[in-house]
Amino acid sequence: MQEEIENRTVHLVVSTTKLSARTIIRGFQLWKAHHEKAKAKNAAVKDLPAHGKQSIKELIGQNQGVTNIDISKTDLKGFEQVARKYGVDYAITKDKGVIPPKYMVFFKARDADALTAAFTEFSNQKMKRLEKPSVLKQLAKLKEMVAAIMPDKIRYKSQERDL
């Protein structure tokens, strides 16, 4: 009886070991196939031209003609958001020879209409920001008005310690 139980136990251990080895080998094969498929997909993506912000070298390398516009450094991030919205391919460079430095936006010649629309939206956003009153200034005025109404209400913070 004992010998039969031992044989069954040994058989179970051997079959479990074979199963786990097969499982590990199959998992590795699946991972390898997935890895090669992802590598082939990434190679195909690299062949496509870049979009959005890129270097001047990449922009010129697309052989579609490049033009440029001067902008000030006031809000480059805001301009980049609008340019991404309109799908403009562009490159920004800094001209250090002039004080204060100028920024040049290079873009493809075929994107001229989209860039014009992006610049108009960007300038409209800037004008709206200038027209809005400052909340901090309004708050300071309100504080002064409250202080003028109730000048005697001043709080003194102090702690007393009792023994």
* Order of SSEs: HHEHEEHH
* Total number of beta strands: 3
Quaternary: single chain
First-last Cα distance = 85 Å
Q: For the residues shown, what is the average pLDDT? A: 78
Q: Order of strands side by side in the largest beta sheet? A: 1-3-2
CA-based gyration radius: 34 Å
* Main sheet overview: 3 strands, antiparallel
Structure class? mainly alpha
Strand content: 5-15%
Question: What is the tally of helical segments?
Answer: 5
Molecular shape: flat
Binned, the helix content reads 55-70%
Contiguous low-pLDDT stretches (5 residues minimum) are none
Structural summary, described in words:
By secondary structure, the chain is mainly alpha-helical. It is built from five helices and three strands, in the order ααβαββαα. The protein has helices at 2-46, 56-61, 76-86, 112-131, 135-149; strands at 66-71, 90-95, 102-108. The chain has a three-stranded antiparallel sheet with strand order 1-3-2. A hairpin with a 6-residue loop joins strand 2 (90-95) and strand 3. The longest helix is centred in the first third of the chain and has 45 residues, at 2-46. The chain is flat. The model has no long low-confidence stretch (mean pLDDT 78).
